[in-house]
Design brief:
two-stranded antiparallel sheet, 71 residues
């Protein structure tokens, strides 16, 4: 019984590790590279694209890590 449980834990760990490694094949941009195109949902039910800010003076992204937490 303990051997079967150990095998299940091992297989689950193997599947998890394979899934985590799947995204590692994407190339990470280097300093000075052009940012990849992306779009994110806004709180106004619109979609905001990085291309919407092309030619603008500056874009500031601010992430408050403890938002909506008890921290």
């Amino acid at each position: 019984m303990a051997t079967a449980r150990g095998l299940r834990v091992f297989l689950a760990s193997l599947v998890l590790a394979a899934g985590l490694n799947h995204g590692a094949s994407a190339q990470t941009p280097k300093v000075g590279d052009k940012a990849p195109a992306f779009a994110l949902p806004a709180t106004t039910a619109k979609e905001i694209k990085l291309a919407d800010f092309a030619g603008k003076k500056a874009v500031v992204l601010f992430f408050y890590i403890a938002a909506f937490t008890n921290a």
